[in-house]
């Protein structure tokens, strides 16, 4: 038992668990939906502890620079206000969740939940010192969010059982995990948490 969730200092950050990143979506992450039941258990733990829960969402305008139509890498996905941009329907986000929308400027890609948002300010104002991060996709938005959290000085724990990657090239997710751990993130799974 390594982690006891602290109501004052800890936050759970759920990255981009949206329909377009799950099976049947516009940019499906293999097994993306498998993070949902695991994240629901983390949500339960953080809720019971009274700790802050944040959910980021990819929230693109229809002409976003990351889309193939504009020379980007991706099919159109997570367009603001469309069904594909909705959170996975089985994700049990609590009423108090803080939602952070990102990558909303047409001409700028933003993989990190901190990039162009008030996420840092929200965490600082709440007195958060330690963040636990899971969601989609390991090799893009989870990675960028984790690396930014480390740079900003947050103790950062990667939830290894609650992430899945795109793996455009095989091994990308494994490489991303190794980089996050090498740069100071700690890895944890549900069994590393005290029952509460
Ligand atoms: C993401 C690719 C494009 C992500 C977002 O959430 O990881 N990946 N846009
Ligand atoms: Zn995107």
Describe the fold and architecture:
The protein is 24% helix and 19% strand. By secondary structure, the chain is of the alpha/beta class. A six-stranded parallel β-sheet has the order 3-2-1-4-5-6, with helices on both faces. Helix 1 links the parallel strand 1 and strand 2. Pyrazine-2-carboxylic acid binds next to helix 3.
Q: Helix proportion of residues, in percent?
A: 10-25%
* β-strand number: 6
Average predicted local confidence, pLDDT: 97
Q: Give the second-level CATH assignment, the architecture.
A: 3-Layer(aba) Sandwich
**For the CA atoms, what is the radius of gyration?**
16 Å
For the largest beta-sheet, the strand count, sense and barrel status come to: 6 strands, parallel
Order of helices and strands: EHEEHEHEHE
Structural class: alpha/beta
What percentage of amino acids are in beta strands?
A: 15-25%
Helix count from the secondary structure assignment: 4
CATH topology: Rossmann fold
Task: Please report the distance between the alpha carbons of the first and last residues.
Answer: 12 Å
Tell me the strand order in the biggest sheet: 3-2-1-4-5-6
Low-confidence stretches: none
Number of domains: 1
Ligands and ions found: pyrazine-2-carboxylic acid, zinc ion
CATH superfamily membership: Isochorismatase-like
